[in-house]
Structure formats: C-alpha cells, structure tokens
Amino acid sequence: MEGILPQLLVGIFISAAASLLGVFAILKRMSLVGDALSHVALPGIALALFLKINPFLGALAFLFFSAFGIWILEYRTKLSVDTIVGVFFTASLAVGALFIPEFEILEALFGNIAKLTSTDILVSVALSLALILVLLSVHKKLALHMVSQDMASSIGINSKQLEFIFLMLFSLGVALGIKFIGALLMGALIIIPAAAAKNISKSLHGFMVLSVAFGILSAISGVYLASIYNLPPGPIFILSGTAIFILSFIGRGIFKR
Amino acid sequence: MSISKEPILKVKDLAVKFNEEKILDGLNFEINEGEVLAVIGPNGAGKTTLFKALLGMRPYDGEINWRKDLRIGYVPQRMEIETDIPLTVLEFLRLRGSENFSKEKAKEAVKSVLLKEEILDSGLGEVSVGQRQRILIAWALLGKPQVLLFDEPTADIDISGQESIYQLLHHLQDKYNLTIILISHDLNVVYKYAEKVLCLNRRLICFGLPQDVLNSEQIEKLYGGGHAFYHHLGGHQH
Prior knowledge:
The complex is a heterodimer. Chain A is an all-alpha fold. Chain A has helices at residues 4-27, 31-39, 41-51, 55-76, 81-99, 102-110, 118-147, 149-154, 159-181, 186-200, 204-229, 233-255.
C-alpha cells in the first residue's frame, strides 16, 4: 500500500496529458494512427534494453523518429499515410516482440507502474505538465486547423509546423504512457477518455475538461483497484475507461438533444 | 487620395501547377477598391485554386500584388465537419484568435450577418448549411477585412437561401466598403451583383463588365465543347 501514492501521482499526470491529446486526436480523426504509432515504441524499448539504457529514452527516440517520418510522408508522397502507418508500425510490433527479452515483454506491452524510482516520478510529472502546457498554448490554432485547414491557413496559421508540434507532443505522450500502461494499450489511454467525453459534450471547452476528468478518474480507479486485487493497473485503467465510455454513450441520449 | 485609384489587386501572368499539370495559366486582371468581381467557369476550371493562390495558400508563378497591408477575409466553399462536433458557434468564432475578442464582438458579428445571437450557443455541426455559411462570413468579418473572398457552395443551399446570401453580401459591401471577389456558379447572380466578371477555364476566357463579356459566344466558349476554346483563344489577352 505504501507504493500507491507515487503510482497515483504518475498515473494522474500521465493520463491527464494523454486524454488532452486525445481530444485533438479525435478532432483530427487520427485515432488509428495514434494506436499504431504507440507500437513503434517496442523496437525502441528492445534497443534500449540491449544497450542497457533507460527504456523510456529508447521508446521516445523511436517515436520521435517515426512521427517525423509520418510528417514527411504526409507532405512528400501521394501514398496514404494510414496504409503506411498500418503496415510499418504493426511490423515494428513484431520486431519488438522478437527482440525484447521474454521476461520484459509483458512489461513493455502492458506497462508496470509498481517499481517507480523517484527520478521516474519526477520526469513523468514534469514532462506531462510540460506537454499539457504546450498543448494548451496552441489549442486554439490546433482546433481550428483540425476543423478547417483552409480557414486556418487563410489567417496565416502554418499547418505544417502545427502538425509537427502535435505529432511530437503525441510521441511524448505515448512514451510517457509506456511505463504506466504499456505499448499495446497506450492508444486506448489517449483515445478512450476523449471518446467518452465527446459523447456528452457540446462545446470544445467541455470536451477538454471532461476528457481530462475521465482520464484522471480512470487512472485513479486503475491504480487503486490494481493495488487492492494485486493486478496490473493498465488493463484495469482501460476497463474503467471503457465503463465510462459506455455510461457516456447511454448519457448521450439524455444530455445531447 | 490618388492611392485609392490604384487597383487593390493586380494579377500578372499567374500560373499554378499541380504535379506538372497547369491548373491555371497566363492570368492577367485587376480589381479596384469597392468592386464586386465574379469568377465563373465550369467545374475543374481552377476557380478555388485561383482563390488559394490569391490567399497565398499555394505556390504560383507570376505576380499577385495586393495593395499594402490589406486585410483579406476568406469564406471557403464548404466545411466538412461532423454534426456532433463538440464546438459551439461562439467557440468557433473565438478560434480565429482576433484581437480583443469578446462575446459582445461575437454577438455583433452574428447580428451583422442577420443571425440571432442565440446561435452562438448552438453547436457548429447542428446549424443548417445556410446558417453555417453566414457564420463563416461572420468569422471572416471578425478580422475586419477590406477584401472578402467568397467561394459559393455548389449545391448545399436552396435557391432562396442563396439569393439572401447575396443580398447580405451586397449589404455588407455597402456597410464596410468591402471589395468582394466571389466564385459563382449562377449567371443570374453575376448579372445582379457583380461589377466585373472573370470567366475562367484554366486560362482567362473573358474579363470585363457582365453585360459586355457575357454574350452567348463567350458562354459557349466557357462551358461548351472541351477543346474549342483553346483553339479560339490565340492572342486573347488583357
């Protein structure tokens, strides 16, 4: 029980950042890209384990690199980004599965928040906070860009730059979530709270606030229930998030319209 | 004083390419302050591309010279959004990031396009297509434009709705001394509201006063038989 406070702290900050990212991922309709992108973390983790460096750094480096790749592809080729992402990122899941040592694979796929060092806590909280602040500072431009790229560029918003910032923030969010929830479920950490919030919100403000609230609620219940029943928190997080999503879906009929 | 006699926009030898294919080529025209210029032409003639080039949203060859420090508003043809998008009209107007934005300014803006202020609390996805178009105009007006580029939607709005949009634009033109460039698919609109007309089919087919240039021969050239007009075009320049 003595470990639950740091876990709660890390869980809350990471899922607050992730669920805020989710709002914009949903506005941009890129939930699938996000999900696949999270798999890229695996070869990064494998390489980091091999080189005996912090897996977070390995995951982050691979994510940044791939996000940069997506960004280039989006502007340079006529190929569908969805297709490329679907193929190569699932392949990286396979690479990760082959090269990550067997006793580490479960942790990489589903996360492990039980053994947190104080550096882990500090880095996770600080980076989550930074992510939230940067995202809030560009959120108007980002929302406009996602609603109508034409109108955004007509008032001089640099779409390329904005997408780059968003993809980098997205990568950072995914890398942060790996420890908490693992590469396999990270996409869900980003999307589920936002998807639930979208069901019952009419305004962007409400969408953002509710998404973060649902993210935090799922994190708290995930960590808490996991510690009571001695289960991994990642899957519990996803299940609480899904429960909220179902409730919001029912609530949609009541709140909206 | 003499400055205002200078055209507000001068376009010289404008060409736009997409993958080596010329979408626009050899365009020359001018527009003066306070005028309404209608751009007409068949589908795929490059009308929206011309707008994007004028707005600096896509690369081009040739010259586009706006008068200095001009504020330009843009109303796009359509906006693909989900009907359940969590974004209110007020928030959408706020996203423009105009200086000193306030709810009062937003109320003024929607009133100036003849909508009720209650619409500010509606979701952007749930208002009618006609209302959304007015909201897009209000959005552009928040930037206090001197020039408005208006891309007419093709089929979304019924005739009476379309008619009232033009009355509205006419009213705004008088009120704010706007220069308006509009893309239109309706020749009646052009006769009624435009001072100048530019017929476009990748090249400039005609440019001038509607009553002068919109004779049946020009219309035939513009909309009829695919290759005929290139053949006739030799040396047609302004």
